[in-house]
Amino acid sequence: MRQTHIAGVDLNLLPALSALLEERQVSRAAARVGLSQPAMSRALQRLRRTFDDALLVPGRDGYTLTPRAERLRARMAGVMPELDALFGPEHFDPATATESYRLALSDYSVALFGADLARTIHQRSPGSSVVYQQLDDEAFAELNAGGIDLLVVGRPTPSQFARQELFTDHFVCAVAHDHPLADRGQLSINDYLAFPHIRIEIEQGTTHLIEDALPGPRRVAVSTPFYTFAVDMLAGTDLVVTFPARLVAKLANPSGVRILNAPRSFPQLPFYAVWHPRMDHDASHLWLRSTVLELTV
What we know:
The chain folds into 2 domains: about 5-85, Winged helix-like DNA-binding domain superfamily/Winged helix DNA-binding domain (Arc Repressor Mutant, subunit A), CATH 1.10.10; about 100-295, D-Maltodextrin-Binding Protein, domain 2. Helix 1 packs across helix 2, helix 2 (about 25-35) crosses helix 3 (about 35-50) and helix 5 (about 105-125) crosses helix 10 (about 285-295). By secondary structure, the chain is α/β, with parallel strands linked by helices. The chain has helices at about 15-25, 25-35, 35-50, 65-85, 105-125, 140-145, 190-195, 210, 225-230, 285-295, and strands at about 55-60, 60-65, 100-105, 130-135, 150-155, 160-175, 195-200, 220-225, 240-245, 255-260, 270-275. About 35% of the residues lie in helices and about 20% in strands. The protein is built from 10 helices and 11 strands.
């Protein structure tokens, strides 16, 4: 783009120009923009050289505008508000926004707060849309490429991404109501390893949290990414499924299973909202993150 005129212009003179054209008097213009009268006089001299025009000339009732200055005044009335908007803080109004938010969530996150989040965004920003996709091995690559706006994950995240801790959960185990372990309030490691398991496979790097807490491998009979499906499978089996405790309140029929405390060596589960740092100060993204935090704390 050619910049044949603006390249040599000091844009710091624009507030002084606007004030002089409106006030038509040096002292009043100086007071308007917070300059001393000598500084405003110097600004006027520079503006005269820039436009090769006197701009303000003595008249019968003080100063009057030259024809060039009159034309500048008409244009400045539209230019200054645009410049204020351009360089001022970005304003985001969810009520009038038409954003499209894409989030990667696990089955656990969707069950825990997915419905509340989608409903809240729709109520507060009816012109915007929400897309949920399954959290998987490609989620961080998509986040990096801009295909995902935000993901929620229960494990440490790559250092190049920004994150905010939302809450901390802990593991519990579920078994059928007639399971041999059903009357144990607290499982030991030996209890845990004595029976086959349903393993929740969300993405690589997640399930190792459990494996790292075990002295040896557990026997996995079924693998699935779906927590609610896994719990529904327990009836009539000797299977054990391990999942975050907050999900218990979301189970369709919690009385049909027994909820047990996981072995004490199992780690806590901090959950994070994760995004690309390029979105740190984006007003729309800030609103999305604050909404997610509000609904998960």
